[in-house]
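The records we work with from here on pair a chain with its fold. A complete example follows; check for yourself that the lines match position by position.
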Amino acid sequence: MKLIKIILFFSCTILFSQKKIDIDSLQLKDTKELFGDDYGNIYIYKKNDLSFTKFDPEGRQLGKLMMTFPYKVQSVNNPLNIVMFSENAQEIKFFDQNLNEIQKISLSDTFGYISAVYAEDLQFAWMIDDSNKTLLQFNFRSNSVISSFPFGTSFQYVKDFLVYDNKIYILKENNFEVYNTKGDLLYSAVINNAKKIRRSNDKIYIFSDKKITQFDGKSLTETFRHPDAKIVDKNTSGFLALIKDKLYLYNLK
């Protein structure tokens, strides 16, 4: 096992150049989630105090949110429109690049119990209605359901999901699954310790605590791994890894 860790560590250092991002380790302590946008900014979400903090590429704090409920951050790839969903509050919130709230959508008056949300753009959101075991496409501009897809599969233990090109990509406790809109299972694979799923153009990425895996429509391929990482993420510059309360950016050499 030690030999495997050594091999993985040196393969990582050989393939990637490493740069430490100067964010104070106290700021990084207790980090639950890590995000990097396409402009090099870093976002830290802490579950213990429900804070969401934005830093520039040099580690300077640009903004901070203190929330009253736990929120799941969908993505920060477009920092002009950051989407969050709270299962506890049953609401979707949108924030601008300064972390100012620009829109809030309350779901409890319209739906049963929404367990997960994927905002497709500034008009449509896909939602898992756990009470009816249904996938909904919701136009929140007109407050109307555009389409509804009953699913025979259980939505229990869904960690994350997204919809792209008429396919539903679902991340469960220890599984990655792909369905069509009829609810037919197209692909399934065991994947342990996965936390979130993201799309970049036509590529689907699965983020675990120590590695990032890419799905090409047929199979899974590991694109980055660091054996000592607590959290990993990526942006257009490279791969981010939180290691012992220090943050590093790895670029391809």
